[in-house]
């Protein structure tokens, strides 16, 4: 299968759908339909959480303070990298990825494998930017249900982020001094 025909052939279904994918991807291995199921899972999760949250009688906060947003932001950064790149979570990604090599610190480099939904999950699982949306949503959900618990989890992840930054700073300092 040529690269040019690979994207369209990876999509099963009616000819118009295959033509849409071919037109969109210009022959590259970019198949937007493989993400539809992932978006559906995400949307269903958010809708389900919203329904349960509403039925519980809880109310959304009138506002979320800048400190909480910053704390959740740093925690989202760390959680998304932990899920998408850390060596210790590679067993979660293994069904959807292939190991390419060692990355910086405790991170690994992986590539998505398979086709269709499997490849889509592999692309999501190896992309900290993509995983950030999911991690941030989960942390915000926890915040809405139990703000003190969310702050505790976010503080832990943020402390690890600060520790990581200090580890990189010390390593850089030793390289320049030695």
Detailed description of the structure:
A hairpin with a 5-residue loop joins strand 1 and strand 2. This protein starts with a helix and ends with a helix. By secondary structure, the chain is mostly helical. Helix 1 crosses helix 2 (15-25) and helix 4 (66-85) packs across helix 8. It has a domain at 65-177. It contains eight helices and two strands; from the N terminus they run H-H-H-H-H-E-E-H-H-H. The radius of gyration is 20 Å and the shape is flat.
Unreliable residue runs:
1-9
The Cα radius of gyration reads 20 Å
The helix tally amounts to 8
User: What's the total count of β strands?
Assistant: 2
- Class derived from helix and strand content: mainly alpha
- Give the CA-CA distance, first to last residue: 52 Å
The strand line-up of the biggest sheet is: 1-2
- The mean pLDDT is 88
Helix content: 55-70%
Largest sheet: 2 strands, antiparallel
The coarse overall form would be flat
Strand content: 5-15%
Tell me the series of helices and strands, N- to C-terminal.
HHHHHEEHHH
Please tag this protein with its features.
178 residues, mainly alpha, two-stranded antiparallel sheet, disordered N terminus
Helices and strands in order:
Blueprint: H1 3-9, H2 15-25, H3 36-55, H4 66-85, H5 90-93, E1 97-102, E2 108-112, H6 116-125, H7 128-145, H8 147-177
Task: Offer a concise description of the structure.
Helices cover 68% and strands 6% of the residues.
């Amino acid at each position: 299968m040529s690269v040019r025909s690979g994207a369209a052939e990876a999509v099963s279904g009616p000819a118009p759908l295959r033509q849409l994918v071919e037109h969109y991807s210009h022959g590259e291995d970019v198949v937007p339909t493989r993400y539809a199921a992932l978006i559906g899972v995400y949307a269903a999760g958010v809708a389900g959480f919203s329904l349960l949250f509403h039925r519980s009688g809880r109310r959304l906060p009138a506002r979320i303070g800048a400190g909480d947003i910053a704390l959740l932001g740093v925690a989202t950064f760390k959680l998304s990298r932990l899920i998408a790149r850390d060596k210790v979570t590679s067993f979660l990604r293994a069904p959807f990825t292939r190991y390419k090599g060692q990355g910086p610190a405790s991170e690994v480099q992986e590539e998505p494998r398979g086709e269709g939904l499997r490849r889509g999950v592999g692309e999501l699982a190896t992309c900290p930017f993509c995983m950030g949306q999911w991690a941030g949503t989960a942390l915000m959900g926890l915040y809405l249900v139990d703000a003190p618990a969310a702050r505790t989890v976010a503080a832990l992840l943020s402390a690890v982020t600060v520790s990581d930054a200090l580890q990189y700073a010390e390593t850089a300092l030793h390289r320049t001094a030695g």
